[in-house]
C-alpha cells in the first residue's frame, strides 16, 4: 500500500552510499587499482568504486578457497542450511540498502528491485531446504549380506560462480548459495557493471556465518573470468550470461581441463509468443507489454518475437502500441517510472543501431518517448515495436525493450512452430490461445525450458517455476528446481565388506 511504499522510499533515500566493491579475499580488501562505477540513471553519477582484479588476484582467491573448502565441506548440512537462512533474514532486514544499490548501480525500477531482493531471499531459503532434503543423510543402497553400500554426496571443491548484471543480486546469490549449500567453497566473479551489489552480498554472507575462507569475490573483466574458469584447481563452473561467453568458457574447459569439470550454464533466448485469433486481446496486450518492456527488456526470459495470427494482428498491434505509449521511461527511483535505463552505453548503442537499421526499412510500428533534462545523458532506450517480414530476420537476441512482431496465417501454424524451433534457442515460450489442441501442438513440438500459457513469460518463481532452457539457452539443470543442487555435488559410493575377518564397523556419518 501507499504508506508502506513511502516508508520504503524514505528508507532507500536514507540508505548509506555503498561501500567500495573490493575484491574480497579471506574477508579483506585484496587491493588493486580502483575504477569508478557510473550509474546508468544519468551516465555521470559515480555510485562507488571497484577494484580491478587480475590473474594474480584469482591465484590468491583460489588458494584461499581451496583451504576453506576443507572446513566448509566438513560442516554439517544443517549448519550450512542455517547459515543460508540467516543470510535470507539479514537480506530482508537490510532490504532498503540493497534496493538503493540495485537502483543506482543496475538502474532497477522500484518494483523490479523489490522483486529481485525477494527472489534472492527465496533462493537462499530454497537451497537451504534442498540441502537438507538432498544431503541430509547418506543413502543406504541394497546389496548382498556382508556388504554395505552407501551413496554419499559432498562438495566438489572450489566452484567458480560467474554472474550477470541483469540480476546482480538474485542470480549472484542463487549461484553462490547453491554451491555453498552443496558443500563447495566459492570464488565468485560478478559482472563488471555491477560489482557493488555483489560485494554487499558477500559481506552479508560472511556476516551470516559463511567462513571467510569459503567465499571469495574477484572483480574485473572477462580476462579475470577466463583466468578463474581456466584455473586447474576449479572443480566446477556456474555461469549465467551470454551464449557466446558460455561457449568460450566451455572451449576453455575442454582445451585445458578435458570433460571433467561440470559447467552449469544459463544463457540467452530468442523467446517467442504465439497468439491465435481466439486469444483475449486485453490479456495479450498486458502480457506482451510486461514480457517485452518490463525491466527494459533486460531479462533472458523476455519476449523478443511475437507471432500474431493475421486476422487479429492489426487489432493486437493497436492495443499494444496504445499500452506501450503509456509507459513512463525514466529515473528508476521515481515510483511513476515503468522502464528504467539499459545497463550502459555499449548496450544502448547496440540496441539503437538495431532499431535504426529497421527504421531505415520502414519497419518500426511504434517508438516510445525518451526522458529529457538531467536524464538525457542516461542510457535510456524507448520501448519499440518492429514488424519483421519473417522470423528468420531476427537471428540474435537484442537485449533491450524492443519487440519484434511477425504475422502468421491460420494455415501456417506448423511453419510458425518450425520457425521458432529453428533459432536453436529454447528458453521461454508464450502461447495465447483458447484452443487446448493448439496449445498442445505448439508446446509439444518445441524443446523450450519454460512455457507460459495465457500469461506473461517473465518472473519465474523459485520453487514453483524452476528456470532454465535447452539448446543455445543453457545446459540445465533448472535454477530454483529440485535437480539443481545435485549438479554441484560429488557422488561417492562407498562399499564395505562387513563380513571380512573381524569385519569393519559400519561406516557412519560419512557425509
Ligand atoms: C535472466 O534474465 O538472466 O523468469 C534469467 C525470469 C527470471 C529470468 C532470469 N528468472 O524472468
Explain the overall architecture.
This protein is of the alpha/beta class and 511 residues long. The strands form 6 sheets. Strands 14-15-16-13-12-18-19 form a 7-stranded mixed β-sheet, sandwiched between helices. Helix 14 links the parallel strand 18 and strand 19. The radius of gyration is 24 Å and the shape is globular. The protein starts with a helix and ends in a 14-residue tail after the last strand. Bound molecules: 2-aminohexanedioic acid (UN1). 2-aminohexanedioic acid binds next to loops. Oxidizes proline to glutamate for use as a carbon and nitrogen source.
Question: Which properties best describe this structure?
Answer:
single chain, 511 residues, alpha/beta, 7-stranded mixed sheet, 5-stranded parallel sheet, 14 helices, 39% helix, binds 2-aminohexanedioic acid, Bifunctional protein PutA
Helix amount, in percent?
25-40%
Low-confidence stretches: none
The termini sit apart by 47 Å
The bound ligands are: 2-aminohexanedioic acid
Tell me the radius of gyration: 24 Å
Protein name: Bifunctional protein PutA
Function: Oxidizes proline to glutamate for use as a carbon and nitrogen source.
Domain Aldehyde dehydrogenase: 35-489
Organism: Oharaeibacter diazotrophicus
